Amino acid sequence: MEETISLQDLFKTLKKRAGLIALMTILAITIAGVVSFLVLTPMYQTSTQILVNQEQSEAAQLTNQNIQTDLQLINTYSVIIKSPAILDEVANQLDLDMSVEQLNNMITVNTAENSQVVNVTVQDANPALAVDIANTTAKVFESEIQNLMNVDNVSILSPAVLKENPSPVAPNPMLNMAIAAVIGMMLGVGIAFLLEYLDTTIKDQQDIEEILDIPLLGVISPIKEEAKLEQTTSSKRRAG
């Protein structure tokens, strides 16, 4: 027989297992909070802006071809900034005990569309070190690009500054706990329906009809203990 579940049955199951669902949700939130506050290392972020200046001859006549050339040049600069030629020198100047690959993973280079400004963003557990890496990377790039491409059109627009009370950008405990709450609730609901599906005990008349596939002819009401006691007392009186 094909088994169907009504909406009423779903709500009945959720109500019956509400404690389990609440427990799983609270447990997930607690774990996410502990991990976010006590386990994960706070990461701080800072950025330096580099300006790529157009030459005067190019500024006089701005065409689509010139714009495309500028964008390609900036894309090239973005690759050079994270190249070993730049990062090796940054590591040497700051006396960093890390490889070029590790330093590369800390740095993100991006540009706005049709913009001459390149943003060099650095993330690290030490906010002061992040500022030093961002500023040193910009200075080294400004110096080395003259030798690498024989151009002098790069200048530091806005250096990174160490704030008095920097706030970490990661982890985000509130977001982590909110996500954990949703996951915990979904997990609790899933376990609730799984337990209900595995529970094969007969609970009421409807279960008898569904399992045996036969109509119910009658129900024997349970005899309460008080009624049994009265019947026993009456029998003894009659016998006496």
From TrEMBL:
The keyword Transmembrane helix applies. GO terms for molecular function: protein tyrosine kinase activity. Its main location: membrane. The chain crosses the membrane at residues 20-40, 174-195. It is found in: Cell membrane. One of its GO terms (cellular component) is plasma membrane. Keywords: Cell membrane, Membrane, Transmembrane, Transmembrane helix. It comes from the Bacteria. The keyword Calcium does not apply. It is a multi-pass membrane protein. Residues 3-94 form the Polysaccharide chain length determinant N-terminal domain. Pfam families: GNVR, Wzz. Residues 142-194 form the Tyrosine-protein kinase G-rich domain. Belongs to the CpsC/CapA family. This is Capsular biosynthesis protein. The lineage of its organism: Bacteria, Bacillati, Bacillota, Bacilli, Bacillales.
